[in-house]
Each structure stands twice: as structure tokens, then as C-alpha cells.
Design a protein that fits this description.
This protein has about 140 residues and is α/β, with parallel strands linked by helices. The chain contains 3 helices and 5 strands; from the N terminus they run αβββαβαβ. Strands 3-2-1-4-5 form a 5-stranded mixed β-sheet, covered by helices on one side.
């Protein structure tokens, strides 16, 4: 009886490592993401305040609001005033309120040059405590 070698080019069986590496990488990614979410939620025994729980220690400074309408008229406390009256009112306000600020609210249809002229006049009286109010829209 002659036994023939049935496997002519017999070779060692090969193990394909690519699927095993894919599974290991997936498991590793899962554990990394899970550990990141668990560690970022807690900071020891520190309880952080919410946004509504905080109290502002700083009070907003008092403001003197000056209006400038389309007709280039100064408005203070719902009354038309002259630049001399505005200057007197600004001086007394800034003297009474050392932390106070003067805010100019000008009509958006006015040319910017006119607004700048009024701001310069107000700035000569109030210095850096004078600002221009803008609308976020």
C-alpha cells in the first residue's frame, strides 16, 4: 500500500490578524470614550454653581442716557435740551456719581459724522466715561 502525500505543497496554516486587530481597536476606542465621559463629570467633592446661582458682586454704574433723534435734537429725560443744558446736566451727574457713565443713543439714520461730533462734545466733558450705545440687531 502506497501512501501518497495528499497535500502536495503542504504549508503552515495562516492566521489572519486584521479582523482581530479591528475588534481590539473598536474595544479600545469604546473604553477611551467611556472613561473620558466618566472623568469629566465629577471633580472630587467640588459642587460647581449654576449660572443662575451666581450673584454679581459688581453693580452696574449709574447711567445718564442721552438721545439724539433724526432731527439732530438732543433728548434728555424725554425733553429736548440744548448742548449747554446737556453740558450742565452731565457735569452735575458725573460729580454726583463718580462711577457713573453717560451713554449716547443716536438714531441709526443719522450720518455718522453728526453722531461723532456730539460724542466729541460729550467726551470733552465726561472723558472716558462717555460711550455710544448700539443695537445688536
Amino acid at each position: 500500500m502506497g501512501f501518497k502525500n495528499q497535500h502536495k505543497g503542504s504549508s503552515m496554516p495562516e492566521v489572519n490578524l486584521v479582523p482581530m486587530m479591528d475588534v481590539l481597536m473598536s474595544v479600545l476606542t469604546f473604553f477611551i470614550i467611556t472613561s473620558m465621559t466618566l472623568t469629566s463629570q465629577k471633580l472630587g467633592n467640588i459642587s460647581l454653581p449654576g449660572a443662575e446661582a451666581g450673584v454679581s458682586e459688581q453693580k452696574a454704574p449709574k447711567q445718564l442716557v442721552v438721545g439724539l433723534n433724526k432731527q439732530d435734537q438732543l433728548i434728555l429725560e424725554n425733553k429736548k435740551v440744548t448742548s449747554v443744558e446737556l453740558a450742565l446736566k452731565m457735569r452735575s451727574f458725573l460729580t454726583e456719581n463718580p462711577e457713573g457713565a453717560v451713554v449716547l443713543k443716536a438714531d441709526r439714520e443719522l450720518p455718522y459724522q453728526e453722531v461723532m461730533e456730539v460724542l466729541q462734545e460729550m467726551g470733552n466733558i465726561g472723558g472716558d466715561r462717555v460711550s455710544l450705545s448700539i443695537n445688536k440687531n
